[in-house]
């Protein structure tokens, strides 16, 4: 494998958590030199530092925007703070790229682990596991890089001398390394988490899933039938051996997002976020500052319920929601912080064949009466958490009655997924104590909030960041990845069978009878003839909405421009084919002063 010098110095190491005390006790090092990897603690520390850097991306604000904005799923919330990431208008080399330098720093660390760790004094099985972790993590970062930027610097040797020269290698070479690393990692990683890599660190099935995704993505890039077949076969193998791997789907889709199940059977790979302040990311009770490795993902799609839930809100002459009156809610831990960065794409299309429809309800989350994923993914009912007395004489109280809301009992805000006559103060002719906000009244300040990763159990201050892990891969993704691979391989029957496992699980509700669940599963069962690329993408929305996958899903399937133009009105006028790669960070370009200039991606 060709090795090149890139613009990195020795990598920095910080402590992290994989749920294992041995890793937590590693002493951070300020700089890595070759001798650092001459001991088991040095090798383990190098791996620990890379896991820590993953935590500094997944769950943070900028990275979440990078992975989800500018797609068919999300549009801007009122506090988005800048539109280029969402609209592609003015997108340039100063946007995104926070993970570029981190990724190459980590790759260099992993090269050191692999180069020097092969001879450390450890039992053979332990040494193999350490090296397998390093291979997985190197492939993990390169897979992110090649999907995001295409051709990137490629190196496999530990660099200790800084260089001001760098070049990009073909994506084909990068994929070759990814596939080699993941194949070798899968051979040596344990079936289930094993000390010192407990929690949900990389295991054999995680490496296999990433390998299947790499084959699938390369197959789309080159239209290579063999890659699709390989990806499908790998997914079949994971499913066949799920008992050995301790993996399975929860019977109820919602159980995948119960905090107690964060490390359960459906979760495959996570980025940990710990409460202990000794790791330096925040002080308990000191509130979230948004930097470092803080997990703020529960709140990016949360509307400003404390300030935008006026009890006497009205619909104006233009038919729009107007917030008015005393707020029916106060901020609390259960409903989380109202960041209002992004919102589900529920704006109706103005013209064209989709006129009058929106992606959120009319394309993604259909069959909401039988498919449980909408109800399990979004808050639609906010129970009053403060007593508010509303006088009959209060401005815009159209109800004509005086009443006081009862905390814990009355509904303060109801966001139904259908139109309700009399909204926002009535249900039909019946006065409603709170407010009713149906889809026609949703806007960039009030909308159903994603609830999958809400965290009501934080520290002394409910503004503290979440301590739940960011879940990168769930077992249902094995079925959906396999289905997409079979679809591309021309086997729609097998694709439908795998999709139906996911859809039939989505039909289950604990409140249903056995007969009702069986009937719902029948409704959601599809045939081979229904399997299309758009159906698969819609199904991935239903299953993985808000799980850091959408931008790469659309890029992988060469669907970004088409789907954005079809469904996302704010981005449709600006998105172009070259936007399927992100702009190379300007910092990288500016630092290359020796040899040929570092090339920018076309269009930027």
From TrEMBL:
InterPro entries: SusD-like_N (IPR033985), SusD_RagB_dom (IPR012944), TPR-like_helical_dom_sf (IPR011990)
Any one annotated GO CC term: cell outer membrane
Record keywords, A-Z: Cell outer membrane, Membrane, Signal
Source organism superkingdom: Bacteria
Annotated compartments: Cell outer membrane
Annotated TM spans: none
Protein name as catalogued: RagB/SusD family nutrient uptake outer membrane protein
SusD-like N-terminal domain boundaries: 24-216
Recorded family membership: Belongs to the SusD family.
Residue span(s) of domain RagB/SusD: 449-604
Matches recorded under PROSITE patterns: PROKAR_LIPOPROTEIN (PS51257)
